[in-house]
Design brief:
- This protein has 158 residues and is of the alpha+beta class.
- The chain has four helices and six strands; from the N terminus they run ααββαββββα.
- The chain has helices spanning 13-26, 31-36, 58-71, 150-154; strands spanning 45-47, 55-56, 72-88, 91-104, 107-124, 127-137.
- The chain has a six-stranded mixed β-sheet with strand order 2-1-6-5-4-3.
C-alpha cells in the first residue's frame, strides 16, 4: 500500500496533511502504513514515554510500531490541537496535542491518555515524510475544551 502526500503548494498544508495522516493510520493499527510515512533513512528519530531509549532509523521505528500495534485491539486518536509551519521550503514543524483511546490484548477496558507532540516532516521531491517525533504525556482535564498550552503552542506560528 503506497500513499502519496503531495506537496504542490507553498503553505504548510501538505506537511500538516502528512502529520494528520500518521494519526489517522493509527486507528487502523496498520504499522506498515504508519511506518511508510517515515523517511527511509537511518537518521530519523522517535522518542516517546514508553521507551527507555531514542529510536534511530526507520527500521527501528517500524519494528517498534509493529510491536505496539500487535498489543492493541483498537485505537482512536483525537487531535484537538495542531499547529504546523514551514521552517524552510522543504521542512516543517508540527506541534500538537493528542488524545489516545486504546484497548489492548491485556484488557478489554479502554485506556485514555493524552500527549503533547512535536513532529518534523521533510519533503523529498513531492512527498512529505516524518523525520522526527517526540511525545510526552499530558493530562487533559475532563470537560475542558481549551487547553492552557494552546497559546504557547500557537505563539511561534503567528
Amino acid at each position: 500500500m503506497q500513499h502519496n502526500i503531495a506537496a504542490d503548494r507553498t503553505s504548510a498544508d501538505p506537511a500538516e496533511e502528512c502529520i494528520r495522516e500518521m494519526f489517522s493510520r493509527w486507528e487502523s493499527l496498520d504499522a506498515e502504513a504508519i511506518a511508510e510515512l517515515w523517511e527511509d533513512s537511518s537518521d530519523v528519530t522517535y522518542l516517546a514515554p514508553e521507551l527507555d531509549a531514542v529510536l534511530v532509523g526507520r527500521s527501528a521505528i517500524a519494528a517498534h510500531l509493529a510491536r505496539t500495534s500487535t498489543r492493541l485491539t483498537s485505537a482512536h486518536v483525537d487531535v484537538p490541537v495542531l499547529a504546523c509551519r514551514l521552517l524552510g521550503p522543504d521542512i516543517a514543524l508540527g506541534v500538537l496535542a493528542v488524545r489516545w483511546r486504546t484497548t489492548s490484548t491485556d484488557s478489554p477496558d479502554a485506556r485514555s491518555t493524552g500527549a503533547r507532540i512535536t513532529v518534523v516532516v521533510r519533503r523529498r521531491e513531492r512527498d512529505w515524510r516524518v523525520v522526527h517525533y517526540m511525545e510526552e504525556a499530558y493530562h487533559f482535564s475532563p470537560g475542558v475544551d481549551h487547553f492552557e498550552f494552546l497559546d504557547d503552542i500557537e505563539a511561534p506560528f503567528h
